Amino acid sequence: MNRLPCSALPAAPFFFLTFSLSFFLSLLLPLPEAVAVHRCERQGRITYTDQQCADGERETAALPRAAPAPAEREPAAGNPSRLQRENAEVARLQALREQRERQERQIRDLAARGAAARERKCRSLELQLKWREEDLREAPLDKAGKARTRLRRTAEKYGAECR
User: Fold this and answer.
1) Is residue 156 part of a domain?
2) How many angstroms separate the CA atoms of 31 and 9, rounded?
3) In degrees rounded to 5, what are phi and psi of residue 61?
4) Sheet of 45-49, strand order
5) Does the pLDDT value for residue 162 go beyond 80?
6) Considering the domain boundaries, does residue 152 fall inside one?
7) Number of independent structural domains in the chain
8) Structural domain containing residue 83
9) What pLDDT score does 46 carry?
10) What is the pTM of this model?
11) 121: confidence class by pLDDT, cuts 50, 70, 90
């Protein structure tokens, strides 16, 4: 198998690949927030900074800062309509929270009432089961079959509802 030296390979595909990768990566990277840049000159030396030039320095150019974000342009203290909107939103959220708490309390109360009713029913079925056992023990031979059937049915009902 013959191998070509690297210099013999065409450079265009590699250039295109690196260019396209760098282009797409630059699209994915976030851009830094624009800041004001001040060009200061002092004793013939030029420096660039994001702050005002110090005393003794001459500002030769200042590049403008980008437009501030909407939140920066509209402070809450200086704009009563925004403050009113925020207060209304807080009140709305508070009302929703209180409503949700009331609903949760109602659900807990219903669940507690349901559990108490189930407990009462289970105690009643347990008492009936005890009585059916007594009836079977005291039943005469000709009625023992019927008493056994009642006991079995009561035990099944107790098992279905209380276990």
Assistant:
1) yes
2) 37
3) -165, 145
4) 45-49, 37-42, 58-63
5) yes
6) yes
7) 1
8) 76-162
9) 79
10) 0.41
11) very high
